[in-house]
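Input/output pair, single chain:
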Amino acid sequence: MDEKDQTLEDVQGTLQEERTPEINTDESIAGSIDLGDPPVETPELEKLREQVREKEDKYLRLYAEFDNFKRRNAKERIELIQTAGKDVIQSLLEVLDDCTRAERQLTQTDELPQIREGVQLVFNKFRRTLQAKGLKEMESLGAPFDPDRHEAITEIPVPDAAQAGQVIDVVEKGYFLHDKIIRFAKVVVGKHP
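Output:
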């Protein structure tokens, strides 16, 4: 090995030592860094700390925003539940006014045809108002029993085998609200002995 190669190796060794400082873990051996010394701050380390602070700040803001969203959503839901029937109740107030007038008329007259006609007008108005809000009566009488639409109260024997499994009587009508069942029809189902 000539002198040039030896000098090159010495320079490379010196550069390597400068790049990776030696950590002193034993007090009896000399080193360039002691474990008790504070860590050396580098621009890259400070940059990473700043990024972590920014991420923490962003996380806290998102968390607070989401928490506010949950509270606002819960409040709106409570308000919606409390006022959900407001539209229907307002439309039924006219029917209630008609009922009050009919009640007053019942006490003032003894003419049965007029009373019957007035009460029938109130009932018709009541039905029209509910239908306008999307209520539809379920047609069950004579239809085949459907457990998705009917609730069987009892079964009664029928003389004709064709009536077996069909709705013979409707105890309580079923209703749809915008094509969704809101009350099942309570029915009597025929069975063949």
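Residues 24 and 34 are 5 Å apart (CA to CA). The mean pLDDT is 82.
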